[in-house]
Design a protein that fits this description.
By secondary structure, this protein is of the alpha/beta class. It contains 44 helices and 16 strands. The termini are far apart. The N terminus is likely disordered.
Length: 959
Amino acid sequence: MMKPLGLSKMMAEPGQRPVYICAEWEIDLVKRELRATGEPVPLGGRAFEILAELVQAQGRLVTKNDLTERVWRGVFVEESALRVHIAAIRKALGPDRDMLSTTVGRGYRLLGAWRIQHMDAALQSVATALPPSVNIPSASFDLIGRAAAIAHLWRLLSAYRVVSLVGPGGIGKTALALEAARTPPPGFAADRLLVELAALSDPKLVCSVIAGVLGTKLEGEEISPDSIARAIGARPLLLILDNCEHVIDAVAQVAELVVSRCSGTIIVATSLEALRIEGEHVYRVPPLGVPPEAWLEPACASAYSAVELFTSRARALGSSFSPDEENIGAIVAICRRLDGIPLAIEFAAARAVMLSPPKIAALLDDRFKFLTTGRRTALPRQQTLRATLDWSYDLLPDDEAWLLRQLGIFVGEFQLDAVIAVAGEGIGDVTGHLAKLVAKSLVFADVHGDSPHYRLLDITRAYASEKLHAGEEYPGAARRQARYYIGFFANADADSEVKPQAEWLTIYGRHIDNVRTSLDWAFSSGGDSQVGAALTAAAVPLWVQLSLLSECRERTELALARLDPTAANAPRLRMQLSAARGWSLMYGVGRAREAGPAWAATLQLAEQLNDRDYLLRALWGLCIDQLNNGEFRRALEFAHRFTEVVADSGNPVERMMADRLLATTLHYLGDQRRAHHYIERTLSRLSDLAAKPQVIRFRFDLRASARYFQARILWLLGLADQALSVVDRNVEEGRTSGHALTFCSGLGQGACPIAFLAGDLDAAERYCTMLLEHTERHPIRLWNLWARAFRGMLISRRGDLATGLPLLRKALELAGEARFLPRFLLPLGELAACLGEAGQVSQGLATADEALARCEARDEGWYVAELWRIKGELLLLPGECRSTISATQAFDRAFEVARSQGALFWELRTAISVARLRMSEGHPADARHVLASAYGKFTEGFETADLRDGRAMMAKLGS
C-alpha cells in the first residue's frame, strides 16, 4: 500500500536507500538533501519531493498531474503552486538549471546521466533505529464520531507541515489531536510528543515547556525558539501543541522557526484561533453530526454521531432510559440545541442518570446552571459549560468582549451591516473586531454568496446574551437592532416584484428569527411599540413569502392595537398593517368575514393618503374578499374599478392583475368564454415578468395563479389536454417555487379537482397527498381542511363509501363558514352524490338543493350545471324520491346552463346521464343522438374518463 508521501521522511523501512549522483550533484533520499560538491543546497520540503520524483523517473517525462497527485496526495492544489516549487528547484541548481526541462503543457523531466549509489540502512543515524518516543496519554474513553476527521487530519499532515485544529471551546480539538497521535498510519516511525500549554500564564515560558517535553537539556544556553530548533534538528517528530490561544504569539514564533529549520518535524496545534504562520493549514473542527430539522426517523437516530455520543455516555454512567420515540426525539432535540458540541453533549448525558431525556431537553434554557457535571479529571475550564466559555471570554480584549456581548442580541444569522448598526458608537473598527472574533472561533462566518453572514453557536449566543443583560446593555442593543431591521426590510416589498422568490428568500428569509426577537422586545414593557409597529409593517413581506398566515395576523393585530394614533406616521402604518391583516384573514378558518373591514380600512386610508399602490392592494383584497363571501357581482365591480385605475398604467403586473381578477370573477360567475379571453390575455403578458416565480405585492405568484385558473377554464370549455398540460407544468413549478400558499392554491384550485374530474384518481390522490403534507408542514389550515374533504371524495369515488363519506362530511363540518367559499362547492356536490349512492337519497337531494339555492342567491354559476345533473341522478335512484319527470327537468336545466356558459365538459356529463336514462326507457336512438351531439363538439381529451365512457356508450348503441 502506498504510504502518505508527505510523511515519507518519518517512515522506517529496512534495506538500502539510494543517493542519486550526476557530476557534482547529489540527491540524497535518506537525508532529504540536495548537495553540490558535498555541501547541502537549501531546498524546501515540497520542492525536494518534486525533485525526488523527477530523479527516480530516470529521465522520463513526469506529467503535472502525476506530480501534484504524488506530492500533494489527497489535497487539491492549483497548478501555480507546482510552478512555484519548480522555480525553487531551478534556483537551487544555479548554473545547471537547464537540467530541469519543461515540456510545455505536459510536465517536466530531469536531464543528466544520474547514477545510483546505495547507502546501507545500518549506516543511518542511531536515532532512527531507536523506538519512537511517545508521551501521548492513553484514551480513557472511545472517541465517537471522529473517524473521518482523524483520517482527514492525517491526509493534511501528508501535505502540510503545520496543521492547526481550530474551533470553539468544547468542540473536541484536543481529543481529535490525541486520538490521531495514538493511531498513526502504518510505518509512521516519528516521535509523538504532546506539549500541554493550558496551565501556562506567562508566554515567556512556552519555550521552556516545549524543551522540557523534548527532554532537551540546554545548560548555560538561553531557551529560545532558535535553541529548540537546533535541539530537534532532523529528528522525525510529530509535535502536538495543545491549547495555544492564550499564548498564541509565542507558540507561533516557535512553530514557524521549527518547521523552517527542522525538516523532519510536523506540528499539530489546537487553539481557538489560527497561528497565522507561513505553511500553516487551518482545519476548523466540525461539530458532531445531528439530525436535520426535517428529520422524522427515530430508528435511524444512532447514525448521527451526536446522538451516539449522548447515548453512549449516558449508558456508561448507568442511565437506563428506553430507546423509544419520545426519548430519541428528546435526545435529537438536545443535540441540536447544543449544536453538536461534544463537551456540552457529555454534560447533558451525565444528567440522564437522574432525569429523562425529555426533562433534560426542557431544562436546557438554563443550560449554564444545568450543564455542570464534567469529569473530575478534566481541566477546570472543562468541568462546567460556563467555565469553558469563561476561559474564551476572559482572553478577549475589552473591545472584543464588548462586541461579543452585543452579538448576543442576534438569533441565527446576521450580516456585517447589522453588527455595525447594533454596535453603534460603542467601539471603533467593528469589522476588525468581528474578524478577530471569527478567528477565535467565537463567531462563525459563512462567506458564500455576495455578502458574508455570521452566527454564534447557540451556547455562545446564550452566554453573550446573559452578559449583555447583566451589563444593562440589552435595551440599547435591542433598539438598535430593531431600527436596523426596519431599514433592512424597507425595500423588501419592492424587491418581491423584481426578484425570483428563491433569490428574495436568500436575501431576506434568513433574518426572520431576528425580526421576531426585535418585535418581542418592542412590544415588551421596556420596549417601544411605535418602533414595533414600524418593524411589523416592514416585515410583512417576510410572512407573506413564507406563508406564515397566523403569525402575520397575530403580529399585525398586536401592532394595530399598540399603535400611537398621534404619531406622524400613524395613518400610513395603520394602512400597511390593515392590508397585511386583511391578507392573513382571507386564508384563515372561521375569520374570513373579518377580512372585508380590514380591506375597507386600507382603502379609506389609501384614498386619504393618495397612495395608489395601497389603493390597488385594497381593491384587489376587496375583490377576493367578495368572491370568498359569495358576493360575485360585487367582486366584479371591484375588478372593474381595479381595471379603471390601471388603465393607463405602464406597469405590466398591474394590467395583468386586472385581467386576472376579471377572469377569476367571470369564471366563478359562469361566463367561461369571457373568462377565457381575460386569462389568455393575462398569460400573453407573462414575458413581461421575471423568468422565475415571484410573489408580487398582491401576495401570491401571479404566473402560477393565472395558470391554475387557466386550467380550470380550459377544462370546462372542453379543452382537456391543454388543461392537464397546464396542471402538470403548474405543479412542477409550484413544487420548486418555495411559496407554500401559491403551491397549495395550485394543487387545490387546479391539480386536484381537474385530475378528479378527468377520472385519473391515482393522479388526484398524489396531488391530494402533496397538499396534505404541505399544509401540515406550513400551517395553512383552510387548505388542509379542503384536502381532507377531497380525500374523502377520492375514497368514496373508489367505492369505499363507508370510509370516505364520514371523512368528507367531517371535513365540511370542521370548515364551518368556510364551506361557503367557492372551492368547497365541488366537495358539496360530491357529498350529495355520495349520499345518494349510500342510500341516503333524501339527504343527498337536500344537499344538492341547498347548494343550488346558494349558487342562485350569489350568482355563483360555474358549478350549477353539474349540481343540476347530480340532482337528476339522485332523482333516478330507487326509493320514494324517484321521479323520472323531475330528473328529466333537472337534466334539461343542466343542459341549458352548460350551453349558455360554453361549459362543454358539463354538457358532456349531462349528455351521458341523459343517454343512460333514454337507454333505460328503451330509446337507444335518442340516447345516441344526445350523446353524439355533445361528444362531437370535442377536439381533444379523448382519453379522459368521461369521453371514454361516452365513446363506449355510442359504440354499444351502434349507428
